[in-house]
Write a structure and sequence with these properties.
Oligomer: single chain
Strand order of the largest sheet: 1-4-5-6
Largest sheet: 4 strands, parallel
CATH class of the largest domain: Alpha Beta
Helix content: 40-55%
Radius of gyration: 33 Å
């Protein structure tokens, strides 16, 4: 006996219907994901606005000390951190600006709640001109009758110049002062250009026109060495004269300390009068 299956077999789906079903499904998926992302964005913006609205400037208690950290790069102008008032500030870092430092020091001089300034980090990663501006601002602060203190694990020459204005200078017992004078170097490219068979044509007039020397010479000319030495000596005089005035050490003694590298040990720095305490 034979049995037959009377079930109806569905017809295969046409290509056009399958195409439109895929397109419609993709559109629905895109729409749903867009709605989810929109909702998440709204929640994120609300959380930021709420954190900014609830944040407030911390109150400065009496007898406070303004702490100035000078270990990082000091730019000409500071950068505002857009996430400063949110919970994401720790993931971003704005450069410290010279303008911000000067304003903070001058404001602290007239703020009755600020009794002193603590300079921390003896690197002062900026130019000598900026260092002198901060130096002058600290002098104005001291004229208000308030104290300045300095501490670091290590002092560069510019960092120590800033620290010298302090009433008390502290150094880590394992630290040092990199006090060794000023040197200027020039990189010369003539040898490389000769090997590459590149000929440089220069038109110049005057003895001290040294900007093109790296391309046409393999060592510093006497005229350039003379003017570079003059610049270095003038910069060194600015540093040593200011330090001598504040620390009560003669310029000759400072030159001897630099020539003999006598500040590479903390206890010797103290015995020479470069610092007050370890």
């Amino acid at each position: 006996m034979n049995y037959y299956n009377n079930q109806r077999v569905p017809a295969p789906e046409s290509g056009s219907r399958k195409f439109w079903r895929i397109v419609f499904g993709s559109m629905v998926g895109f729409l749903l994901s867009s709605i989810v992302m929109f909702i998440l964005s709204i929640i994120f913006m609300i959380s930021i606005i709420a954190s900014v609205a609830t944040s407030s400037t911390p109150a400065v208690p009496s007898n406070s000390i303004l702490r100035i950290e000078l270990s990082g790069l000091i730019a000409e102008r500071g950068e505002k951190n857009p996430f400063e008032d949110t919970g994401f500030a720790e993931f971003t870092k704005a450069n410290l600006g010279l303008d911000d430092i000067l304003k903070s020091i001058d404001k602290a001089a007239t703020d009755p709640k600020i009794k002193a300034i603590s300079i921390e980090g003896g690197v002062a990663n900026t130019g000598l001109a900026s260092v002198q501006e901060i130096y002058s601002a600290l002098e104005r602060f001291k004229e208000s009758g308030k104290k300045v203190y300095a501490y670091s694990d290590y002092y560069s020459q510019k960092g120590y110049l800033l620290a010298s204005v302090a009433d008390q200078i502290y150094l880590n017992p394992l630290g040092m002062i990199d006090f060794k004078g000023i040197a200027m170097r020039t990189v010369f490219f003539k040898g490389l250009l000769d090997k590459m068979e590149i000929d440089v044509q220069v038109i110049r007039h005057g003895t001290f026109k040294s900007a093109v020397e790296p391309f046409i010479l393999d060592k510093m000319s006497e005229a350039n060495a003379e003017q570079m030495s003059l610049i270095a000596n003038q910069l060194w005089s600015v540093i040593t004269e200011k330090i001598a005035e504040k620390r009560g050490i003669s310029v000759d003694s400072l030159n001897q300390i630099a020539n003999k590298l006598l500040c590479f040990e903390a206890d010797q720095c103290q015995s020479l009068g470069m610092i007050d305490n370890l």
